[in-house]
Amino acid sequence: MNNTVKRPVSRRTLLWSGAAFGAMQPGARLDGLCAQAAGPRRPNIVIILADDQGWGDLSVHGNTNLSTPNIDSLARDGAMFDRFYVCAVCAPTRAEFLTGRYHARGGVRGVSTGAERLNLDEKTIAQTFKAAGYSTGAFGKWHNGSQSPYHPNDRGFDEYYGFTYGHWGLYFDPELDHNGRLVRGKGYITDDLTNHAIDFISSNRDRPFFCYVPLNTPHSPMQVPEKYFEKFARLEPKLRATNPEQEEVPMTRAALAMCENIDWNVGRVLKKLDDLRLSEDTIVLYFSDNGPNSWRWNGGMKGRKGSVEEGGVRAPLLMRWTGRIPKATRVTRISGAIDLLPTLTDLAGIPVSGTKALDGKSLAQLLTGKVGDWGDRMIFSLQGKRISVRTQQYRMDPAGALFDMVADPGQTRDVAAARPEVATKLRDAVETWGKEMLPLVGPDDRPFTAGYSALTLLPARDGVAVGGIERSTSAPNCSYFTNWTRKEDRITWDVEVGRAGEYQAELYYTCGAADAGSTVELSFLDEAIEAKVGPAHDPPMIGKSFDRVERRGESYWKEFKPLAMGTIRLRKGRGKLTLRAVAIAGKEVADVRRIALTRKA
User: Fold this and answer.
1) Does residue 236 register a pLDDT over 90?
2) Contact (CB, 8 A) for 464 and 495
3) Measured in whole angstroms, how far is the alpha carbon of residue 82 from the centre of its chain?
4) Which residues face 578 on adjacent strands?
5) Most buried in the list 210, 377, 390, 464, measured by CB within 10 Å?
6) Residue 456 φ/ψ, nearest 5 degrees
7) What CA–CA distances, in Å, run from 133 to 44, 48, 129, 196, 292?
8) Strand ranges for 316-356 from DSSP E
């Protein structure tokens, strides 16, 4: 199956002097270059971020198990970065992209139950571009906070469509968030997110735009349309994981099919830019957020998602700016997600103000092929309490083993004894960096916010079950609460109410006919309301029929019904929002997906 999107050759609409780019002095900023190059209009920015796609999941990197011609074209027509580093898991990488700072500085500790939230005193790349007059939109998996003021609409994005958590349980016609409101998606999620991104590009063709497309595939659950999966359904991969016994071939098949679907959607974005004659006025950037989510071919690197070894944190980075970045540029210097904010603002000639000190540096001069006095650097990776550090030649792992990544890219020989001066230098650097960063990823005492916007959604993933109540799955992100059988059981949310007032409360529930009629109480501080759970609502589970591989973390989906509980007065301040049963009509009270609080005018 050939998924290449054929694109017409675009026509230049603005003049640009290629000599201006090539004549840059090492270390010089590009401020003003765009104004010189393109008159009053600065370049548009399109960033596409894949989720759990490994470095090896692209044909441009040598994987013959699949074909990704549209993504590959960015390297052909622009630049490919050989050694680009992200974090071991999703949310930290997103935070580093958004801020140009190591994720720990921004309060991002993990991927669920609030640990993924980006501190409110961090300024995002979207806020920076918006302040410069850009229209800003994000379409996909946000994963850096859900309730206002952590929501993407509060972090610089005019338009948002997607979901704000880490896992999502259904990829066909899913429930999604559109500017803080629940909506129903249309079709396969990656196609749908791309549709909205394309609409945003079209609507903003006459002004500079910043379009962020954080897709959620090939992250599990492994769901993909048949027209992509049929090619891989019986594939016996020619390129395998370093240890083939670790590879689950059905997982590989599904992941590769999902990657080819991503490629098709990237082609649609590039074609739209061509059709609108915006290609030469738009910087397009493609990368992924961590190593592959299963053992499969990844260039012989050690580690996968969750690891701070090379294979867990090395990711693709491809960048195109037609006419500005020379074709087939290959950047061999190490770089990281922390570099994307300073690089893009530099290329666009946008000042970075009001931000905290950046850890990243602009890569603009590397795109000219005239590196100049770049020097060596260290890029640190942190997952939990595990730290590794990468220089241009070496990686030191969390145990202190040293590897020469040029001579031994698979990390098979510890050379610390043979290179004692290098080992000492890197161990000292890790110790110093760890003393600064590790205290920042300790216990998280931040409450969940409520009342900072007209509608606040408090999902089960942010709640705590007390007693016999259980989560529907081990991964909290798209879970719901079940097994609520006793009066002493309860669900609590640690919340901070930002604005006092009266709120209409809704409970999203399911329950069978034999269990309908239980009375539940919702309380906060000294206020409480009661409601009867009903009518019966017991829909079927959705999702299993779409799975190409049996899921292990995401909950199956079902349609939860909103129950109007009445009006509760919430005082400003912090406390426990508590849901408990006053009377139980049957064997169980209900399954609970979320509480919704709507502030009355």
Assistant:
1) yes
2) no
3) 22
4) 492, 523
5) 210
6) -120, 125
7) 11, 21, 7, 21, 37
8) 317-320, 329-331, 335-336
Q: State the DSSP H helix or E strand holding residue 72, giving kind and residue range, or none if neither.
A: helix 69-77
Phi, psi angles (nearest 5°) of residue 338:
-65, -15
Instruction: Determine the distance from the C-alpha atom of residue 523 to the mean position of all C-alpha atoms in its chain, rounded to a whole number.
Output: 34
Phi, psi of 529 (to 5 degrees): -135, 155
For residue 38, CA distances in Å to 12, 32, 201, 359, 369 come to 11, 10, 19, 30, 22
- Provide the 3-class DSSP secondary structure of residue 127: helix
Structure confidence by residue, pLDDT tens digits, 326-378: 999 999 999 999 999 999 999 999 999 888 999 999 999 999 877 778 899 99
Instruction: Give the pLDDT confidence score for residue 4 in this predicted structure.
Output: 52
The model carries a pTM of 0.93
Reading the block at residue 553, the tokens are: 């973390």
3-state SS assignment for residue 246? helix
Angle between helix axes 189-203 and 249-275 (nearest 10 degrees) is 20
Residues 6+ apart with CB under 8 A from 431: none
On the CB side of 316, how many CA atoms lie within 13 Å of its CA? 33
Give the three-state DSSP class for 193: helix
| First-residue to last-residue Cα distance in the chain | 55
Which residues are paired to 402 by β-bridges?
396
- Please give the Cα distance from 537 to 528 (Å, whole number): 25
Distance CA 549, CA 358 (A): 41
User: Which fold would CATH assign to domain 39-368?
Assistant: Alkaline Phosphatase, subunit A (3.40.720)
Report the C-alpha gap between 599 and 505 in whole angstroms: 9
Q: Domain ranges in the chain?
A: 39-368, 385-441, 448-599
